[in-house]
Write the structure tokens for this entry.
Amino acid sequence: MRVLITGHRGYIGAHAIDVFQKAGHHVTGVDVGLYDGVEFGTPAVADNDITMDVFDITADMLKGIDAVVALAAISNDPMGDLDPALTHKINTAGVMHCAEMAKSAGVPRFLFASSCSVYGAQGDTILDESAAFAPVSAYAESKINTEAELQKIGDENFAVTSLRNSTAYGQSPRLRTDLAVNNLLAYAVSIDEVKLMSDGTSWRPLAHCRDIARAFCALSEAPIEDVRGLAVNIGGNVENYQIRDVAKIVHEQCAGSQITIATEAANDPRDYRVSFDLLGKVLPNFELEWNVAKAVKVMFAEYNARENFKAEFEGGRYTRLVTLQGRLAKGDLPHYFTELSGTQN
């Protein structure tokens, strides 16, 4: 199968390249390169690696492609709230441009990286894919809007599948420390504090970034009638955690650390538990390879083995918002950021 992945130089994308290639697929990657230069390791390389804005993708580029995996996005709530209009344009208009080009090129499958954040503030009720949306951020709203727009263009010749991913965590050669598990561990390694930014009572479904990549691959290989028009939660039923329980896992791994609550801590409105029964029905042989405790052990070793990790973490090297703000300040951004947001280089 010939697969095109947008955002292949991202946190999940770094795994997706490797997962698809190891499954025997040819991978073309399209990425604007916003986070080039802040790698944590040596990522896999796409068979055809293209530095390009998704708005510049053409139908001709997609001829002969069997599946498009749309990962490229403004990737979390703080970044999304920095400029909500820009977030909606990139996360919805950018994906829709790619989808329309794919459909016109005759690509049969389109897999979209949505998010369980669409469920928003719902407490400890266990939610399946039929649950009402309650978004609390521009990022979540953009995912809801994109799912709806994609459903409009899906048909018997263009199968759209939306993967509502759990909050990602875990080791990656394109590391992010602005994710709950990774962030708690980074503080523990750096300052011996498992530093909670909330009271820790909120529920969140969690999934390892590689397991998310594996789910994209498995769904791209599934019988097309099983995934046409599907929106499916990605994760595992036993991987719903209260954030304070994640803090305990990190604390147990990091001898000498203590759990603290930041003075600026506030209640986290993102509070939801999720059912993954549908994923098990669609992919009965798919199982998660990771859980939080297993990944924390691996990341703990990686963080400690990196000589300058504390300085890099505190300097924001692996925090997407810090990188974006730094490039905004320098006027060093891909053209579409400046054109869409009105910012001038």
Remarks:
- The chain has a mean pLDDT of 93.
